[in-house]
Request: fold
Amino acid sequence: MTDAGLLRVIGAPHPDVAPLPPAAPGGQGVRVLRGVPYGTVDGGRPLELDLWLPAPEPGGGPVPVVLFVHGGAWRRGHRGDMGLRTRGWEPGPFARIAAAGLAVASVDHRLSGEARFPAPLEDLRTALGWLALRADELGTDPGRTVVWGESAGGHLASLLALTEETRPLRGAVVWYGPSDLTTARGSYVPEDPTSPEALLLGDAPAVLPGRAREASPLARVRAGAPPFLLVHGEADTMVAPEHSVELAARLTEAGVPAELRLVPGADHVWYGASEEQVEEVFAASLRFAHDAVG
Reply:
């Protein structure tokens, strides 16, 4: 056997054809498949996602999908985390979404210490392709997909929804996501070469204006994009609420349905908001996702 032939034999199966891991019970009939490879990167770690699948209903058809993108300043974070204020929930937020009848694919993507933009956006598009390819096995409907992200994940969710080639998306839920990397807002200045935005792009956004614009949802708004729900804390000190306010306005100008919710007293990651406010934000986001997928 040649070296090339041996490599084909000993290498792990490609995610497109690899067997799915066994499902574990997640309560309320929800099934959880953890650490499912969905893509490969030459010289990098496998790209993985967790799948939360609703209990199958007799005679029920394929279920819609929420593609969840975690936050962490594009530098850190984990696919199992929806943010500070949901970490103590029991059942957790993904289990709640699945119990409501929507599958959840919570994805890892390459971080800024591993690759520069547009790598994480490319990873999300790979995840959508994998979900479409394996839909029959999963019992999901890739044509009814909503992307949902928080903070840096909200930024990537916005970009994914505004990428014209991304056809399956029916909506985008964006929690306190940056929408413009080109302009100073709040504590952010595009001249800073040490900012999370600079680490994402490879240099200060002011030094890379073309790439900063490419990475700015505000600059990529287009007619025909799916509906958006933008939720932001009025007192956000990390990502100024103007990011969501201006993106909502630009979407509306383009004829894209955009709902904006500002949460009084809430800082980033809903810090300072009451438990009732956080529960209402989650409930409103879930209602939006349900309505978007029909």
Observations:
- The two ends are 53 Å apart (CA to CA).
- The domain at 18-293 is CATH 3.40.50.1820 (Rossmann fold).
